[in-house]
Structures are given as structure tokens and as C-alpha cells.
Amino acid sequence: MIARYFLPISALLLAACGSGAAGAAADRAADERVTEHDTSPPPDTSASRPTVLFVGTSLTAGLGLDPSQAYPAIIQEKIDSAGLDYRVVNAGVSGETSAGARRRVEWLFRNPPAVLVIETGANDGLRGLTPDSLAANIQAIIDRARALDPAPRMVLIGMEALPNMGAAYVRRFRAVYPALARKNGIPLVPFLLAGVAGVDSLNQADGLHPTAAGQRRVAATVWKVLEPVLRERQRAAA
Question: Max Cα separation, the chain?
Fold first, then answer.
């Protein structure tokens, strides 16, 4: 299913996201947008309800949709329906690589979250950036989160690389997420787009970003892993 999704759109992805020096420049431009935030306050996570902070790419931001249709907003609906006491903050940024996310959490963590959901790496894979750098950046985010007092509970979300990057690259990229989850004892969502990738009716015209229905499927995938984390933390805090 993953290959069926990525192979037909690989040329589109590379054209849309750039390659070579132009792609690297686009990456830097996207990542450095965080500097806009350096003099402004980070998202307010100090309200009475503990915050679930989603750090992610355009897949989390809900590119092409109303923010209320992005999967973090749907997670908020599930939280409310389940009677859990949390407030979701969607900090997804389109075009961001793991290096950009690593830099941006310094700003985001000025107001520490209760639960951190990490979705990054999709743009690393599109650029063919090294899996070692992806792993190092995610590990740095985890380490920085654990230095907070109190440290948030965390969930890591996995992503897949394009098959045209070569089988060895795809294997190394895929292995980053379960290895980090095991190393750090963090629950893992193996693949964010499970059940959505390759399904035309669940993706927008670009073939990359889920439709509103696709986002609901993504939310269900994430919720299976996130809900037990939220419940366990709420019990521990009671």
C-alpha cells in the first residue's frame, strides 16, 4: 500500500518540494520561518486544562482544509466526547523538516505542554535527508521535552520515505521511528497515513494531503495510541 501510494506521485513530490540546491534553499526558508515567532509569545498552554501539543508538518496543520478539519481538531472532539480534560494546540507548520522542528520547540516549550505529539520527518524523506540526521533531530526534541519540569508524556508518529530514494534508504528511514520509540519508551503510531495513503477519495488533488474524510481516518489512527496515554496521565494526576 505504501509503495502504491508513493510511486505514482514521486515525480510530483519532488517537483513540488524541489531538489538539489533549490530544494535545500526551500528547506532553509521553511525552517527559518520560526524566526518570525522569536519575538512573539508561543501558543498559550497555560490555561486551566492541560495541553496536548501537536508538533508537525502540513499533514498536522491540515494544509488545504479549514483548521477545524485537521486531525488535531478532531482529536479535540474525541477528547471532549471521552470526558477527558485536555486542550489541543495544533503547532503544525507546512514545509518544515525535523531540523526546523528541533529549533522551533525552544519557542513552543516556553509554555510547557502536558502531552507532546511529535510528527516530523515527511519533508526529510522528500528531500532525501539522512536518516541519521532525522533520528538525531527527533532525539533532541525528546531530550528537550524531558528537560521540562514537569516533563510531558510523549507520542511519536512514524512516516515513510519515497521508494524512489532506494530500498536501503527506505529501510533506514522507516527504522528510525520504532528505534527511537523503543530507546525512549515512547508510544509509537507506526505510520500516520495508514489507511489513507493510496486512497484517492481520502486525499486532495495533490495526492499528498488528506481530505477532511482522510483527516478523520488519520485522527482515528492517532487516537488509538494517544487515548491510553491521556487516560493514564489523567489518572496519575488525580
Answer: 52
From the CA atom positions of the chain, what is the Rg in Å? 17
Look at residue 115 and give its three-state secondary structure: strand
Query: What b/e readout covers 153-185, taking b as 16+ CB neighbours within 10 angstroms?
Result: bbbbbbbbbbbebeeebbebbbebbeebbeebe
Phi-psi region of 95 (alpha: psi -120 to 50; beta: other; left: phi over 0): left
Tell me the one-letter amino acid at 43.
P
Q: Percentage of residues in the chain with pLDDT exceeding 70?
A: 80
The residues that are catalytic are 58, 206, 209
Q: How far apart are CA 218 and CA 194, in angstroms?
A: 7
Q: How does pLDDT run across 84-138, given as a tens digit for each residue?
A: 999 999 999 999 999 999 999 999 999 999 999 999 999 999 999 999 999 999 9
Distance CA 65, CA 215 (A): 10
Over residues 67-77, the pLDDT tens digits come to: 999 999 999 99
Q: How do beta strands 153-157 and 87-92 pair?
A: unpaired
Q: Which DSSP symbol is given to 19?
A: -
Average of per-residue pLDDT across 208-215: 96
109: three-class secondary structure by DSSP: coil
Residue 58 has pLDDT above 90, yes or no: yes
| Nearest CA among 107, 105, 102 for reference residue 121 | 102
